[in-house]
Specification:
It contains 17 helices and 7 strands. With about 400 residues, the chain is of the alpha+beta class. Helix 4 runs parallel beside helix 11 and helix 7 crosses helix 9. The termini are far apart. The structure holds iron/sulfur cluster. The site of iron/sulfur cluster has 12 residues, from helix 12, helix 16 and helix 17.
Length: about 400
């Protein structure tokens, strides 16, 4: 029997390995960049390649990583099977590994900056599903299993067994009769994960159980990062956050808070487009596309966006509905301030709006984010100054 037993400590009811095994293989670390062993490796790569937060968010070297991160995020909303397994780079090269590691890192920053735990959970689920698909045929499953599970072993025939406590904790989140205890082979505190041939291999079952633990780890890690983000980072990430939230809203018709961006949070350029259209002014094509994509990003239903155009001189219900639907489908993200200025869609001049005057203001979604943050701060100050029982008078 080849064993991967580790000492266990109790974290609530969850037995986890007391110490995690050493893992130096860079290909494995790039494939599973959420592993606890990957932290040090990613930090080292950042130093070696001089990747700081500015490079990651805006630098040209990290451009492809941001593109890959975007597809990781989009897959987490769009794909039924989680994040696309294949990387866009070759992880047997340093460049490919950089791409995988930092696209994950960037995607985690973006979901964290959304401050939306439902979005974080959804993304964690998709990343864990991706990992499960790869693990199913990866020899690294042994070391990853011993990273996450305190009692797990594999015999020479490739049949795995897992400690009962781990099994009970992990299988509760999985549907299907094979995961129910009365249907399992349990002996001396161990559950044997029998091979079911084409239906479900023993290794496949380990990968499925691991998915539960990886999902929790990825989610908790992102929530921890979220709590540490400062305001300037949250605002800098407004554009990719808007992209992913808009996508979720259009796919699920959920009303999510950036969503929650009431009219008082809208940037002047958006208010200008809406009020000009309401007055029958012919807003130019660039302004119309901007308004449609902004509405999508803040979670307004497509029907509300169509309503914005009702008073336009050339309004036609079916054409506008088609065009707005196209914008929502194609996931357009709104243009930034510089393009809006060039196309005469910016509504302010210097001195007219304090937020628009900020040196970092280069995107209307940042305006909304900053407004929301300020309101939230103000509300918490107000709550703190209201004396207890003040409502009893
Ligand atoms: S500066 Fe940017 S956010 Fe402000 S009104 Fe102009 S385009 Fe909109």
């Amino acid at each position: 029997m080849r064993g991967f037993k580790c000492n266990a400590i109790e974290l609530g009811n969850v037995p986890k390995p007391f110490s995690i095994p050493d893992l130096k293989d860079e290909v494995t670390l790039a494939r599973y960049p959420f592993l606890p062993q990957a932290k040090e490796w990613i930090a080292k790569m950042a130093t070696t390649h001089e990747i700081d937060i500015d490079e990651l968010l805006d630098g040209s070297m990290m451009e492809r990583a941001r593109v890959r991160a975007r597809s990781r995020l989009v897959d987490s909303v769009d794909s039924k099977d989680g994040v696309e397994v294949a990387s866009i780079g070759d992880i047997h090269t340093e460049e490919g590994r950089l791409l995988e590691a930092f696209s994950f890192y960037y995607a985690r920053l973006v979901v964290g900056a959304s401050e939306d735990e439902r979005l974080i959970s959804r993304w964690a689920q998709a990343e864990a599903e991706r990992a499960q698909h790869i693990l199913d045929r990866d020899d690294a499953i042994a070391i990853i299993a011993s990273t996450y599970i305190s009692e797990i072993e594999c015999d020479k025939n490739g049949v795995w067994r897992i400690g009962l406590a781990d099994f009970i904790e992990l299988c509760t989140g999985i549907t299907g009769s094979r995961w129910r205890l009365p249907n399992c082979d349990i002996k001396d505190g161990w559950v044997t994960l029998f091979d079911e041939g084409d239906k479900y291999s023993s290794k496949g079952k380990v990968a499925r159980l691991l998915r539960e633990r990886m999902k929790d780890d990825i989610r908790l890690d992102a929530i921890e990062k979220m709590a540490k983000m400062d305001e300037s980072l949250l605002i800098r990430l407004s554009e990719p956050v808007g992209m992913i939230r808009g996508l979720v809203a259009s796919r699920t018709a959920e009303t999510i808070a950036l969503i929650g961006a009431g009219e008082e949070d809208w940037p002047p350029c958006m208010r200008k487009a809406v009020s000009e259209l309401a007055e029958g002014v012919n807003v130019n094509h660039f302004g119309r596309v901007f308004l449609g994509s902004m509405s999508r990003c803040i979670g307004l239903p497509a029907e509300t966006t169509v309503d914005f155009f009702r008073a336009a001189p050339d309004f036609n219900e079916s054409t506008t509905t088609y065009q707005v639907g196209h914008l929502y489908e194609r996931e357009y993200t709104p243009s930034g301030c510089s393009k809006l200025k060039v196309n005469h869609n910016c509504a302010v001049r210097t001195g007219e709006d304090r937020l628009c005057d900020q040196p970092w203001m280069d995107h209307p979604l940042k305006y909304i984010r900053a407004k929301q943050r300020r309101r939230k701060k103000q509300e918490s100050v107000e709550v703190n100054v209201i004396p207890p029982n003040s409502g009893d008078a």
